[in-house]
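In the laboratory, one determines a bound structure by crystallizing the protein with its ligand and collecting diffraction data. In a computational setting the workflow is compressed into a single prediction: the sequence and the ligand go in, and a structural description comes out. We illustrate the idea with NDP.
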Amino acid sequence: MKYRRLGSSGLSVSEIAFGNWITHGAQLDNTTAHACVRAALEAGITTFDTADVYSDTMAEIVLGQALKEVRRESIELCTKVFHPTGSGPNDRGLSRKHIMEACHASLNRLQTDYIDVYYAHRYDATVSLEETFLAFADLVRQGKILYVGISEWTAPQIRQAAALARELRVPLAASQPQYSMLWRVIEGEVVPACEQEGIGQVVWSPLAQGILSGKYKPDHAVPQGSRASTAAGAPFFDKLAGQWLRPEVLVAVAKLATLANEAGLTLPQLAIAWVLQKPQVSAAIIGASKPEQVEENVKAAGIRLDLELMRQIDIILDGLVERDPGKTG
Ligand code: NDP
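The predicted complex, in structure-token form:
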């Protein structure tokens, strides 16, 4: 494993992080979930990502159990607040009340005294940014969260937050956006804004939920057991990755697999290495339904792709890449 600093903060993160969206508490039984976490730890992954909303709060519980015996100082535990975790009007969003209550609930479920990076999972247009950041500031002073992050915020929202964070002396260190060879909407605005503010990118779905593993073939039904085929995964897959289940994309993906093979890599390794080429990316968060996927994917750490290979990738994906910053969030 290789480690990078999270933006300009002093926190080191593993350049490949492990996330448990859809898998823990839903798609996988707990034995398999724990085996994936063990594989991540054995590969040197120290950064773990979850959210209160994942699997109706079960994902945090499963991760907390899986990491219970691990020395707390040896890992970075990250979670998020915003999406509803109950049916009441205060069970969602970025109000002071919900942030405080959600943070304490996450600490309990994760069986820990502090969260390393606490993310605002989305922007909340119904609450003043000042209220949100004052709540984060208090949690930082109490030692319950060490760094703050935002996820899927636009560049203007990030700039506003960074100004407030500076004023309140809150360490706003991370942005968590979707980023892959196919989805590059952060490149135009979010990355430059964050770079200016010393905020690192911790990117999600580097494999486009498995599209960039090559397992989805043109003119074939989705494979049994894959995320697209499971009750837990299909709704999220359809919403975010379904757009890529088109013959022209899947044919291009097959060409990328050949390119990867020629470079001595598997396609997932190429796809993860690709997002890690950007110095502004602090970490790529991978998901896994099997420990073997973790073992394969972590081999992308430390790989440099030469310019010609990067150019070939762009030629293959010409016309298929989404770059519109308006699609943030
Ligand atoms: P990926 O793009 O890495 O997709 C992971 C899935 O792809 C696996 O669960 C598996 O699905 C398949 N896969 C992985 N490796 C292989 C392989 N080697 N061969 C074949 N199939 C493979 O990431 P995720 O979409 O899971 O997202 C990663 C993390 O990012 C999440 O856990 C979460 O922490 C974070 N995230 C954050 C969001 C946010 O709003 N901030 C939103 C979404 C995710 P299967 O085997 O079931 O097909």
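The longest strand covers residues 76-81. Keep in mind that any predicted model is a hypothesis to be tested, not a measurement.
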